[in-house]
Amino acid sequence: SVCPGSMFMATGSLSVFLTFPQDYYGKTLKKTSDLKSNACLAPAQPIPAFVLKALKKIHPEVTSKYYGCGLVVPECLEGCKLLDLGSGSGRDCYMLSQLVGEKGHVTGIDMTEDQLEVARKYVDHHTREFGYEKPNVDFVQGYIDALKEAGLEENSFDIIISNCVVNLSPDKRKVLSDAYRVLKDGGELYFSDVYSNRKLSDEIKNHKVLWGECLGGALWWGDLVRLAQEVGFSPPRLVTANVITVDNMELEAILGDYQFVSATYRLFKVPKISNKASLVIYNGNIAGFGESLEFDAQYTFKVDEVVEVDGEVASILSHSRFAEEFTFQPPGVPAGCGVKKPKVCANTRTIAPNVS
């Protein structure tokens, strides 16, 4: 199925809708510089030194065939089983395979055979480069809204990442529900994508180049919040958001006054939240985050600092892989002197990126 209101539903040309991204990313684009807008190259936060070190070990051909927007690196990865939706040439998979370690595992899924060919070509190369006895990465061909059909089992992954590919799917609800199905209890979908300030017109949705450039399939951020909770996830937590500028006059004329952001959200498969606030202390034991952990746009946890979190975040921290990284104050302990209460702006509270 496809998005309601799409021309492709009316005309029955779903095959064109599905195969265009394959052609665009497999045949039209040969290198990153072939992209016609900067939507898929939107700047992210400063890259941590340990991530830069991991990226330097990746084969140049894998890096040059990478078309993502930003960099998706969740914290606390050691030993985790991770799935990359729309893994492309495998850059993020090979970077993350170093961070999960030899006891962890990374699976990449992509629909584009040309991209998978590049990724699979260098499995043995990176196994040797990382000093592993056997590969901890594998790649499957399939669609991100058909994970069961691709052979991915339910409750099998600790973390799912995605980098600028959910917008390429015609059925975003199915992407989210499939992700929820294959995640273990306590698992997380941590992903970067492009969002619009309002629902897109059919003209923009059905424009092939805008679709391939990550704009034509962009969700209105409010629909993400609704869809995520409908399939069972906790309310999305906004991590970062960067305004996108489209430096292409032809595309700008078509887009008019629509605005877009590249935003990273985190969604958790945890029990329904309570309304009780909780006091937590970050222990500082996550690799690469020894002094502080910037969890999202609202909460940054410094080592040994007592922070009052809302019931939603308390549930996430206590039911996910972060549970062992925090000390939780017993219920009923009053928030005395020295307890930090984060400032909350309206946009953060409503889970919205700052786009008007």
UniProtKB/TrEMBL annotation:
It comes from the Eukaryota. One of its GO terms (molecular function) is arsenite methyltransferase activity. It catalyses: arsenic triglutathione + 3 [thioredoxin]-dithiol + 3 S-adenosyl-L-methionine = trimethylarsine + 3 [thioredoxin]-disulfide + 3 glutathione + 3 S-adenosyl-L-homocysteine + 3 H(+); arsenic triglutathione + 2 [thioredoxin]-dithiol + 2 S-adenosyl-L-methionine + H2O = dimethylarsinous acid + 2 [thioredoxin]-disulfide + 3 glutathione + 2 S-adenosyl-L-homocysteine + 2 H(+); arsenic triglutathione + [thioredoxin]-dithiol + S-adenosyl-L-methionine + 2 H2O = methylarsonous acid + [thioredoxin]-disulfide + 3 glutathione + S-adenosyl-L-homocysteine + H(+). It comes from Oncorhynchus tshawytscha. This is Arsenite methyltransferase. It is an enzyme of class 2 (transferase). One of its GO terms (cellular component) is cytosol. GO terms for biological process: arsonoacetate metabolic process; toxin metabolic process. InterPro entries: Arsenite_MeTrfase-like, Methyltranfer_dom, SAM-dependent_MTases_sf.
